[in-house]
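Re: folding output
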Amino acid sequence: MKHTVNTLIEYWKNSYQGPDKYSDDAIKNIAVNCLSLSETWFMNRIPREGETFFVTLFNKNGVGVSDLFGVTRSNLPETLIMTLTSNSKDYSKITLKSIVGGWSKIGNAKVIGELEIC
């Protein structure tokens, strides 16, 4: 699904289970930034045969602690908005990476983009 700001906000409202700490303007700004960043990271990028994408989440000490597989251009905005609103206290950075040739090549993953979380 290709998101718009409104569909991403609707997704967030249906999925977010945290405290009510975001105003409508704040969540709109977060959604705009998630969409923009996702499009920028995938802009003019045609996946190579066998290429897959995943997100790595880094803890506050800068250590990669979790890989989220199955990331695509269409679901990256959802991944970003949920991480930023639900887990920003746990993570310091998100990176989008790609690999070609299967998960055995994960050590050779290429970083496509990264976002520092404050």
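--- second protein (sequence, then structure) ---
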Amino acid sequence: MQVRIASKTAAADGIALFELVAADGNALPPFTAGAHVDVHLGNGLVRQYSLCNDPAETHRYQLGVLRDAASRGGSAAMHALTAGNMLEISAPKNHFPLHADARHSVLLAGGIGVTPILAMAQSLARSGASFEFHYCTRSAASTAFQDRIAGDDLRERTFLYHDDRQRADLQRLLASPQADTHLYVCGPTGFMAAVLDTARAAGWRESSLHREYFSAPETPSSPGGAFQVTVQSTGRVIDIGADETVVQALAAHGVEIQTSCEQGVCGTCLTRVLSGTPDHRDAYLTDEERAANDQFLPCCSRARTGMLVLDL
């Protein structure tokens, strides 16, 4: 859908806040806390950005975007935009939802990972749910949305930590897991790994741990190896070279799979596997979903068997 950038302001050092409104002036499709939209930035560049405003709002979407020096093009393109520019975006999608059965929610945000977490905090506050919100940044200057955090609905349940002052004591925060408490974390991969590792060591159940990556975490390199895939609808067998992805090989033979992040983070290219065992290399599927071996992300994952039959 087409939207217009109504405003672009500085939310913190290096973070721009974009307010998007419908091009036709109508209400926007509703969304739930943790949702994101795909933003089409031209030349085939598509990036996912979390919606960080209160999900009760339908007149606007807000995106917080960090100007990343290591950007693959997305954040640089976003920061080049100005108020009045038109954008094409998807409808909201949510792969990082709040769980309705939680008695208490622990929200942990690192840096720009605050964007989906802030929407969660505001949603939980509005519903009167029990939660605590921990927000870790490098410094006060890099802490976004300070005005919203200081509001009556969040102030008493928000805890700020700065690397140049006091860091969060994760062992203390996560020391007493409860069966009906859920943990949500988003931020840099190192921060998320520290949170999740600390939680697991403290005895948190995997089903109570929820995370969303902005980029794929580093994984130990292992040989790729060539294999084949069968396109179920036609029976066509396509060779996948050791130096190409399944998406690339299929596209070269006229079989297009929609992609977005191409890092195994967003889930756009999720494909059903009818036969064979995938070699999962994504950051999207849960451990339980990987163990089922009935779906995989062909933008990054490969095969443990010589053949995968795909529901294409």
